[in-house]
Amino acid sequence: MYPRGRKTGFDDCDTEEFPQPKSSQFRIFNPKDFQQQFNSKSESGSNAYHNDPHSPIGLTVGKSKFTISKYLSKGSFGCLYLGTHLGTNQEVAIKIERIDCEKPQLHLEYGFYKKLLQIPKGVPKIYTFGPCGRWNALVMELLGPNLEKMLELCGGRFSLRSIIQLVIQFLFLFRSIHECGLLYRDTKPANFLLGQPSTSKWWIIHVVDLGFCKEWRQEDGQHIPYQENKPFTGTVRYMSINNNLGHEQSRRDDLEALAYMMIYFFKGRLPWQGIIASTITKRYMKICQSKLETPIETLCSNMPNEFAMYLRKVRSLNFNERPDYGSLLTPFVDLLAREFVLDLNDKVYDWTQTHRIKPLYLRFPECNPTKPISNLNRKNYDGPDDYPEIYSRTLS
């Protein structure tokens, strides 16, 4: 029996044509411009929520006194607001959920964030969690724009170099999440945010929205059992074939979803986008059929062979098998070193450069744009020695 799916990303532009890039030139990422666009888009929503007599705006959260100041967006579970610490004026993100909602999730998400505290980078700081009037509130570090926004900024596609650098970050991040005993289960560009542009973490990918996470390790340390007829979890565009079939997810499924997201970054769309059916379940079945019938060579056409190799490997993993993250990662590190003249300290992405301009510079206010990245103070910009076991061979 094909499982009946719940609405978990059906409205995420899956039935719309993705606009093709208007030009081959990337724009320089200006944090001030992005903030102005963001503020103008959220202004009407902010006013609407502020005029609502039941709005949480103006309330304070926790003993540290974080005040809720502005509505930002709505997520899978709850709404996101901008907040401020009353003592320091530090801006934070505050996710809220009605205490009396039918299926409360925010306390579970808070628990998942606590499990990931040991990860040194890629997870936002959590400041407090607790009641706030008729809501529960989760106060966390305010991050920068998400990868979907950056894709729009770059014309609908990322360059190969940026994608390889993202793959390397993502594999480290997923390995860390899995080693904490969790599955992410909701891979999509909107769920991965850059750090704040004015900080040294501007280039680091951060994972958010942990509402779909699940523990893959049971209390006795054993892997969760394989099951079928499970409800869909995540966004259909990127979900693995096993998830699409209603099978219990494991670590392999996070890695397969990552492959589809990288192909989307490279090509601007996936073959199963735009599929329409009379019901959500039938549409999911058609999308699953497309994933099964599209050869990997076709899916990864015009891409370096490393991407097809990666997808074959993760699809071949058994349900409870631990992925060999090192063997998945090494081909991309080799590809990066082979195809690009690379200073591993520069951390240049499409949104921080203009196309084919060398040398490449960061374009942030606190940086001198006349200096190459390699001359910047490494104390403020931690380099690739964050991952010495991966980069040592490349640098030798």
Automatic annotation (TrEMBL):
Record carries keyword Zinc: no
InterPro entries, A to Z: CK1_Ser-Thr_kinase (IPR050235), Kinase-like_dom_sf (IPR011009), Prot_kinase_dom (IPR000719)
Domain of life: Eukaryota
Region feature (Disordered): 1-23
UniProtKB keywords: Kinase, Transferase
Protein kinase domain location: 66-333
Signal peptide (from-to): none
Gene Ontology molecular function terms on file: ATP binding; protein kinase activity
Name used for this protein in its record: Casein kinase I isoform gamma-1
Gene: SSS_374g
